[in-house]
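Box 3.1 A note on notation
Throughout this textbook, protein chains are presented in two layers. The first layer is the amino acid sequence; the second is a token string describing backbone geometry. Keep the layers aligned when reading.
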Amino acid sequence: MELFQTADWKSEKHVPVIEIEKSDDLVDVKVVVGKEIPHPNTTEHHIKWIELLFLPDGAKFPVHIGRTEFNTHGESTQGPNTSTVYTEPTAVFRFKTEKPGKLIAVSFCNIHGLWKSEAEL
């Protein structure tokens, strides 16, 4: 079994979608899980976190840009899916770099495990 699962994000709701916007020397990266097909966000089935890494061209190891955790999935003291508060699995990262390279987004579903996608910067 593979540690990370991958697929086309247009047909698989677990794949993190990487959207890149560059301005001057800043890079804004938005990572969305469930862009085309919404991912459930319930107490029983949800995305726990998204991480972004950057592997500069010629580097041996990636740089960890950041991690966003999603901790509100409708649970409350009244039971599962009774709250009106649900986080959506979307994260935005901003950083500077002078080098091109590869962006690597990883997300974790509490039922379906680790999912990964990559994009060139």
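The chain is about 0% helix and 50% strand. The first strand starts at residue 4 and ends at 5.
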